[in-house]
């Protein structure tokens, strides 16, 4: 049987993205979006927690704030954990593969603040421990990160 795990959401950030780093120094941005669901006579809002890793997470944290409209493409991830008092908890989150910064009309091409693709980081800056907010939050960068980033392929043109 074939499995497929893909989600595309367009909504507004409900809070400023929070950029953190793993113990290995990998940046991850956590944020949530509100997506309007229009029914025949009423509207409802769904809220989704999203995480964006590495350079994608840095860009979201550096350029987006509460209320901004974004498009998120990614996959659903089910997580479970146990609280200190022994209660089992679970959640379904979105792990972003692609984020597009939209303007109010929903057109990513009309966005003039950052005309370059949000999926392609300048290798000379991203490989040196981040840039913008990430550079301020992370004191030391990787020595060999620049060479590794220059060898990475461009994943923007992979068909889905």
List the secondary-structure elements in sequence, H or E: EEEEHEEHHH
**Looking at the chains present, what oligomeric state does this protein adopt?**
single chain
Percent strand? 35-45%
Q: Please report the number of helical segments.
A: 4
Structural class: alpha+beta
Biggest sheet record: 5 strands, mixed, barrel
Give the name of the CATH architecture of the domain at 7-81 and 89-105.
Beta Barrel
Residue ranges: pLDDT <50 for 5 or more in a row?
Answer: 110-133, 139-160
| CATH fold call of the domain at 7-81 and 89-105 | OB fold (Dihydrolipoamide Acetyltransferase, E2P)
- Basic shape: globular
State the end-to-end CA separation: 19 Å
Kindly state the percentage of residues in helix.
10-25%
Radius of gyration: 17 Å
Highest-level CATH class of the domain at 7-81 and 89-105: Mainly Beta
Number of strands: 6
| Mean pLDDT score | 75
Outline the structure in words.
By secondary structure, the protein is an alpha+beta fold. The chain contains four helices and six strands. It has helices at residues 54-63, 123-126, 133-137, 145-151, and strands at 7-13, 18-21, 27-38, 43-53, 69-82, 88-101. It has a five-stranded mixed β-barrel with strand order 1-3-4-6-5. Strand 3 and strand 4 (43-53) form a beta hairpin. The longest helix has 10 residues, at 54-63. The radius of gyration is 17 Å and the shape is globular. Residues 110-133 and 139-160 have low confidence and may be disordered.
């Amino acid at each position: 049987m074939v499995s497929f795990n893909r989600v595309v959401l367009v909504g507004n950030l409900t809070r400023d993205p929070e950029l953190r780093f793993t113990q290995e120094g990998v940046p991850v941005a956590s944020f949530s979006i509100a997506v309007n669901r229009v029914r025949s006579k009423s509207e409802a809002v769904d809220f989704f927690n999203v995480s964006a890793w590495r350079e994608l997470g840095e860009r979201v944290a550096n350029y987006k704030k509460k209320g901004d409209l974004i498009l998120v493409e990614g996959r659903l991830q089910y997580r479970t954990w146990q609280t200190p008092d022994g209660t089992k908890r679970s959640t379904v989150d979105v792990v972003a593969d692609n984020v597009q910064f939209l303007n109010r009309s929903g057109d990513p091409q009309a966005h003039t603040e950052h005309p370059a693709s949000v999926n392609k980081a300048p290798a000379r800056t991203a490989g040196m421990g981040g840039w913008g907010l990430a550079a301020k939050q992370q004191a030391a960068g990787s020595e060999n990160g620049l060479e590794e980033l220059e060898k990475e392929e461009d994943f923007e043109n992979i068909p889905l």
